[in-house]
Description:
It is a single chain. Helix 2 (28-36) packs antiparallel against helix 3 (40-63), helix 4 (69-92) packs antiparallel against helix 5 and helix 4 (69-92) packs across helix 6 (130-151). The longest helix has 33 residues, at 156-188. By secondary structure, this protein is mainly α. It has seven helices and no strands.
Amino acid sequence: MAGERSGEVGSEIWTIPNILSMLRLALVPVFLIFIVRGDYMVSLVVLVVASLSDLLDGYLARRLGQVTRLGQLLDPAADRLYIFAALVGLAAQGLVPWFIVVVIVARDVFLLALGVVLANHGFGPLPVHQLGKVATFALFFGLPVIMLGLAFPAVAAISQPIGWAITLWGAFLYWWAGIIYAIETARVIRIPRVADEPRSDTLEQGGQCGG
């Protein structure tokens, strides 16, 4: 058993937290279908269930000492997929301009390119930056607030401006974090390395560049 109790990250696959993460991922297409159909109330319920499972699997991973590499990959992947699903679904309904979708997707493609550059220089992914976490949280919170106004028109006058403000701020922070990753990548690849030196004493332990 790996995780916080042993101070290590395990390689197990079929742990309770990982199964919850897999179920959360399986709900992504369900979430998208309901958004595209314009059934915002049900899509919000699916999102709430997914969010609660996210909190639960994080708690169980720490409580049971089941922090795994797979779990560290699944969690940010699920967050991104729900953000993309919400963006694409709302854009398909004409409720969100497509340029917002392009801005968000382009930033993750940019980070993927940075990851390739790092790998080509023998480094693992950069540690997650706190600003990236804040940006992801803002998007993950702002889009459902927009959807709240669609599901309940009575609160739209309040939820729509708030949701859009948080979402646009999140998109700005998303790219700001991306620029920070680019600057850090440029710094790292200039570090002189010895041929038999370990690939990274910090980068490989930092997790995915997921912010």
